[in-house]
Amino acid sequence: MEIKKIRNFCVIAHIDHGKSTLSDRLLEFTQTISERDMKDQALDDMDLERERGITIKSHAIQLYYNHSDGVQYTFNLIDTPGHVDFSYEVSRSIAACEGALLLVDASQGIQAQTISNLYLAIEHDLEIIPILNKVDMESAMVDEVSEQIMDLIGCDLDEIIHASGKTGLGVKDIMEAIVDRIPAPEGDPEAPFQALVFDSMFNPYRGVVAYFRILNGTIKKGQKIRFVNTGNEYDSDEIGVLRMSQEPKKELSAGNVGYVITGIKISKEIKVGDTITTVDNPCVDAIKGFEDVKPMVFAGIFPIDNDDFEDLRESLEKLQLNDASLVFEPETSTALGFGFRCGFLGMLHLEIIQERLSREFDQDVITTIPNVSYFAYTKKGEKITIHTPTDLPEPTLMDRVEEPYISAQIITKPDYIGSIMALCMEKRGTLLTQHYLTQHRVELSFELPLAEIVFDFYDRLKSISRGYASFDYQPSEYKPSDLVKLDILLNGESVDALSALVHRDKAASFGRQICKKLKELLPRQQFVIAIQAAIGAKIIARETISAMRKDVTAKCYGGDIPRKRKLLDKQKNGKKKMRQIGKVQVPQNAFLDVLKLD
Question: How far is CA 577 from CA 492, 526, 562, in A?
Fold first, then answer.
């Protein structure tokens, strides 16, 4: 295959702008998938993706297109997610491409993640093809959104392709533009072999399957290959290209995208971003991969039964192969035993990982309250990274605590500016800029503490803007903050899984909320349960679950008060003894439901 007949591109857009639907039309147009096998979201192979209607994983596939000049071209398409929590998938896909289809919904216009993904593509010098999708809808604002696209990327009006993923309008124009506008990959098929691993997955029968993009050289089936960063060498048992299923080939050369199966069973041995070369003709330099992921939200994941700890480790390692943005390390908890401290890109990412552990690996887990990383400075000048509230030094030894801040961009209609500002101020945010993109769209920039957006910020933003606000953020810096450790006590014993680091001003209300929620969730016992929220030795909130009581005076007929008093005192002493030796078990659903505070 000649390198000049290859085109590598990805589809980028904000969530729900029609990427997967348009990808379906491209598959149909090139007859990559038959009419009988066609279904909506054909590239989304997870049940979760279909249920939620979102793309979670990027999906690579090879198409063959016969151009109007009679030449057959090979397209390597990568469909990417649109949600901010899966932006790492987008950055990996962009690293393997020369061009990008920038999709904008004609009824919604440019939104925050559109801009974020576009900047990622521009940083990698990708050729951008702007596409105005859903132009057949009654609510489409074709002229207005076209102006927004021209302002954003500085293109001419005639460069914007009008399309509809639903009806297939404009698909031929898109195909022609891919050939004419996106450059062919650069690379020398005769040079030493050099390929970038941009994704991987685990097959229970064949081991780890690595997806790569070849920059230089040629690889043949059976050749011995080396992973440059780990230094490990393997035989390439099978190589091939990614069609609707894996299609084996005898050789692949520069510019192509494919997969390799080496029989590796240990998931740690392959790292996304690594460089593959051949042992007999190795390349001199490793490819400069994409940057390491920076987790935004941290939570502990613990097996319900401690005997399942090793199974959970294996499950997380296999999941990390398929989702390189998941970060985890072992940790222990007095309440929950052995488990893992995991880093996620956001709350949706946490929810998806939890769901995938349950569905794909049959792991029942308990998740602790999500938090973020802080820096604590002692009076001796030591800097300590705080991942969990238990890491926080004693107040007498501590000089200050710094918390991470983010720079947030919110694009919305002018009608909702007031309520959005009120929400951000409530979350300790500071307004930086306010910029009108058009008469009907405004971009607000805020500086916010990351901890404040972890729980319910995105949901509340969507509610108050009736779904019209879009949100994107980048980490900015760490700033000193008045943070305190909030402990939850059950009958005087601290439950470290429910401890949290919160701002002093919000500690009392947050403590009251958790105590009220736990009162609803914990089952009654035969003794009184005191639920308390405390900062150090100071109790700031309390709820009491009364004991289940038997009417011990029911057998007393008449009004024999001394006898009744004797029975009641005996019961009271029994309850007191029970409370001293009784332990309160926190059910699994309580840990999950506490996260969903109103």
Answer: 15, 11, 23
